[in-house]
Amino acid sequence: MSPPSDARPTVLVVDDSALMRRVLVDVLGGGSSEQGPFRVVGTARDGFDAVRKVHQYQPDVVTMDLEMPELDGLGAIGYVMSESPRPIVVVSAHAGPGTAAAIRALELGAVEIVAKPDERNRESLAALGPLLIEAVRRALAADLSRVTVLARPPKPVVHAPELGLKGRAKLAVAIAASTGGPRALAELIPHLNPGKGACVLVVQHMPARFTRSLAERLDSMSAIRVVEADHGAHLVADTAYVAPGDYHMRVEAAPDGPVIALDQSAPLWGVRPAADPLFRSVASVFGTRAVGVVLTGMGRDGADGLRALHDAGGLGLAQSKETCVIGGMPGAAQQAGGVDAVLPLTEIADRVSGELTRRAARA
User: Fold this and answer.
1) Catalytic residues, which ones?
2) How far, in Å, CA of 54 to CA of 178, rounded?
3) What is the pTM of this model?
4) What share of the chain is helix, strand, coil (3-state, %, to 5)?
5) How far apart are CA 334 and CA 342, in angstroms?
6) Could you tell me which residues come within 8 angstroms of residue 123 by beta carbon, excluding any fewer than 6 positions away?
7) Which of 126, 120, 19, 109 is CA-nearest to residue 73?
8) Omega of the bond prior to 190 within 30 degrees of 0, cis?
């Protein structure tokens, strides 16, 4: 037992696998040495057990598996966020239905996702530790008053059949987001109007393989197309490109129009994809025909890149602290001098659309 004076943040670990529960407890709590960054106050084997123990232990944060018997993780998140809200970190498989369910978990109120490793792979289990610890730290910094419960998924948008090829993008919108980002993107991208001649480029800090499900979810909600980016793809108007997890995304000039370039160069600010390389490349290729947006998240990714975009004649926007789950990234962007306007999340889409209309007229 931990001593009463133990001031470490408390965690409830929820997973139906006894082995995975032990791994998570050791990673977060330091095993029997009590030297870990957090104090694990309990474990739960299914969703019903999790809801009971949230009320019993009142943990500061919960790690939540999604595929469990009796009551699954999505059901448990719904109960927790309705009855006793607290930060939830999803630890989910990145294969099969796990990725789509993880995106739905973010809609229900979870704030972070970590890919669950193969229990039979010692190397992947060992690599889990730093990723999970950082995700829990980010979750603890979240402002839960900005994390509302979304009981039902938004009504899907039925895209009209595409007639012929869309034109190359003449303008670009570059967006950076981290903790709280998927929900912010779900507010922003569906409200962007097509017909502006612009592409949208999104860096969301998220593990590999989950970004495709994020793109598919946003696509189902939006008038513009949303896809996970492919290396070498031409930038097409009325299309949003989500950087794949574990790849930096840039744009490069080409004879027949800008293209996407993906690479696995070293992480920046501890993340890959990072927004700074994207913003700098958009500044170089699009210049005055660009808009940059920094949304909710911890750290300073996007700050220097947005300054470069601003200095190249583009417009820099930041989400207001009052509407962020975590205001670190927008705040850093303001301090770096690249922000022309700070706006509540609900006002950003209109400002972007209006700015694209003005810049298209001058192009």
Assistant:
1) 178, 205, 301
2) 26
3) 0.90
4) 40, 20, 40
5) 8
6) none
7) 109
8) no
